Amino acid sequence: MSLSRRLLLSATLVLFIFLGLTGLVLDRAFYHSAEQAVRGRLQGQVYSLLAAADFNELEKRIQVTEPLPDPKLSSPQSGLYAGIYTRSGQSVWKSGSSLGMNLPRYSHAAMADWYYEQLTDDDDRSYSSVSFAVSWEDQQDARFQFNFQVLEDNKLFEQQVGQFRNELWGWLIGVTLVLLMTQGVILRWSLKPLREVALDLDRVKSGDMQRLSENYPEEIRGLTGGINTFIDSERSQRDRYRHTLADLAHSLKTPLAVLKAGINRKPQEDQDIDGLQDQVDRMKQIVDYQLQRASASGRATMGVHSPLLRNVERLTDSLQKVHAGKGIVCRLDIDAVLTFPGEEGDLLELMGNLLENAYKWAAGHIRVSAQMRVIGQTKILQISVEDDGKGIPEEQRQLVLQRGKRADETVSGHGIGLSVVQEIVSVYGGRFDITDSQSLGGAQMIIEIPSA
Amino acid sequence: MRILIVEDEPALQSQLVETVSEAGFIAESASDGEEGLFQGREYPYDLAVVDLGLPKLSGIEVIRQWRSAGKDLPVLILTARGRWQEKVEGLEAGADDYMVKPFSPEELLARIRALLRRSSGWSQSQLECGPVLLDLTAQTVQVEGTPIEVTAYEYRILEFLMLHTGEVISKVDLTEHIYHQDFDRDSNVIEVLVGRLRKKIDPQNKHKPIETLRGRGYRFALARTAG
């Protein structure tokens, strides 16, 4: 399921539950208050009826002064009806509105007590009814009880509630639709960068773009940054392969040409054969150099880290053994927590070449130091290898540091190893520099590798 | 000096054997890891050259097993790819030096001599004991500054004795390190050679450089002067 569909679905669900509950609660509340209002109205009608009614002591009967204050009681079938009954339930008075109607009688009436009930007449019409009993005394202290009843046709109440419900649910559905639409628009807007990334990736794939832009919201910048790192490393890898292939082909052409010419001349003398041998050796050397470069083609794999100190120790232990006769003292100033942001093989290749060079030229002392430098957002692993040899002359430094040198042009002595260092460092997007060592007086090799 | 060469590529193997033999060493070869392991364990070699990429048993494994069997001969490893990971693993397994193919014969011999020297505690390629000076690289002998003509076998005996100055070397040891393994050990050729050497480097019999310890062997008796 797509992200926007998931978000929309969950938002819709939450909205429906929330607004549905709100609707139910409002509906209940309104219903109760409407019911309450009906009771209040009916009580009021009873009071006004009581005010209009009077007990005739002589005739021992009730008299109602008409017209009643509420005209609805006088107009026939208005929906509001009233009646007065004797204690035994005999009707003594009926409102004008109840003319021709067969209204249901109350089921219970008590002195000075409101009694509410829902009643149904023979035609299945329902009514809200309130009944109330009053007693009068005559001069002989005889008591005469009369029961008052007021009814209201429920149609009115139901109309009211129905209208409220229509309005309430109409509004709620309207609000839901508006919210959902807003939600949809917000989603489209929020997910736009993701669609753009996909589009941009298509463009990168088709070659219309070199890499993803940097202008994405920060939540996905990590992702796009990662993709860019990947794209860049792939591209530089490809470039390197192309360069390497071109270099290889070019540098093999010359000795091949010499060989071809030499064989055509049908070599007889040792001297001629030696000449051909030289070309073969040269070709071998070229192949070897390119192989070594290819094997050192470290990948800036994300997330891989190798412990620095342990691997440098492995190398210095090994080199100490190889150069046992020279009595070189190698000092390591490396914090054990430091790691190299890449594979162990690349680290060994990198430091192996630097250290081999140092062991080759040092008179007696080598110092390896490393530190993690933090510059703003980026961390940079800086490794320095110093020796107390005679250093590398300025003009050779430039040759060594130049990238993409052809095998037959490398400087003897410092050649292949340091070129490989340069190669790996550039794969990792770092820097390689050669200076004079301040503390030991020989050469100082400094590499800087950006570390995530 | 007897050297074992473990290399599976026949052309390179015969080349190595030739180079090493021409330089005055006894070269014997093995073509795979298992054979190399066996020979190195059974015979007293002074040094081994081991290719890392061997059939049956890798070079690293061969070295590891020699070391755990108590063999402490110096080992020079050969690698084709020259990755540091490989070199470090080889050296950690017990090798003493490495070379990346292709290499020149001169470089190989220089490394072999350096390793032999180092394993006997000498740090320079000129061994000097009193008036006797032996140059490992040039393979020459001088006494009191005068060059002495010695034959190849005489040189080998002197070289072995001087590299192990002060140690008692039995006749069998000497034979084993100077001749191929199929050499007839009962002959008295060693005594003859030692006798000739004595006459050449000490004609007046005043320094007595080579002692004979009856029933035990020989000892180079002059103390190290330098190196």
Structure, explained:
- The complex is a heterodimer of chains A (452) and B (227).
- Chain A is α+β, with helices and mostly antiparallel strands.
- Helices cover 51% and strands 21% of the residues of chain A.
- Chain A folds into three domains: 3-160, Beta-Lactamase (2-Layer Sandwich), CATH 3.30.450; 236-295; 306-451, Heat Shock Protein 90, CATH 3.30.565.
- Chain A contains eight helices and 14 strands.
- In chain A, strands 4-3-7-6-5 form a five-stranded antiparallel beta sheet.
- In chain A, strand 13 (431-436) and strand 14 form a beta hairpin.
- In chain A, helix 1 (3-52) packs antiparallel against helix 2 (154-206), helix 3 (218-264) runs antiparallel to helix 4 and helix 6 (344-361) packs antiparallel against helix 8 (415-427).
- Chain B has a five-stranded parallel beta sheet, sandwiched between helices. A five-stranded antiparallel beta sheet of chain B has the order 9-8-7-6-13, with helices on one face. In chain B, strands 10-12-11 form a three-stranded antiparallel beta sheet.
- Classes of the chains: A alpha+beta (452), B alpha/beta (227).
- The interface between A and B is medium-sized, with 23 and 19 residues.
List keywords for this structure.
heterodimer; A: 452 residues; Beta-Lactamase; Heat Shock Protein 90; 3 domains; five-stranded antiparallel beta sheet; five-stranded mixed beta sheet; B: Rossmann fold; Arc Repressor Mutant, subunit A; five-stranded parallel beta sheet; 8 helices; elongated
What's the CATH class of the largest domain in chain A, please?
Answer: Alpha Beta
Number of helices of chain B: 8
Determine Rg of chain A (CA atoms, Å).
Answer: 51 Å
Q: Describe the largest sheet of chain B.
A: 5 strands, parallel
- Helix percentage range of chain B: 40-55%
The CATH architecture term of the largest domain in chain A is 2-Layer Sandwich
Q: Write down the Rg of chain B.
A: 18 Å
